[in-house]
Amino acid sequence: MFSLSVNDHVMIAHSLPHEFFGPAQSLHGATLAVEVTFTRAELDEHAVVLDIGEALALLDDALTPLQYANLDEHPDFAGRFSTSETIAEYIGTRLSVSLADRPDIGIAVHLRENPRAAVSYTVANRP
Predict the structure, then answer these.
(1) d(CA 97, CA 101)
(2) Which cofactors does this protein require (predicted)?
């Protein structure tokens, strides 16, 4: 299995309105470090998993709708808690749609909320 990882960050605002989330119930900002790993069992005809420039552009496209957004007002998070896990899923889903014509490329999103906490989401069963 081969892999290629690229990274960036996204700055958001959100609240998690449930007592479960303690002080994060209030509106607050977060800078999330995002790393995406693309995998492939065999290299393509150019001997790569995915072109690095394309991988960076795909990640940028996935993050752009979130950049500086208040996720409490973002339509894709309506009726959902905008936890790090759901944000990672959102990014993974957007990447999967962008790579729909290449289902042999696996996608995993690693999102670091702070130096001590991170979540991961792997897009399952790409068509």
Answers:
(1) 9
(2) Zn(2+)
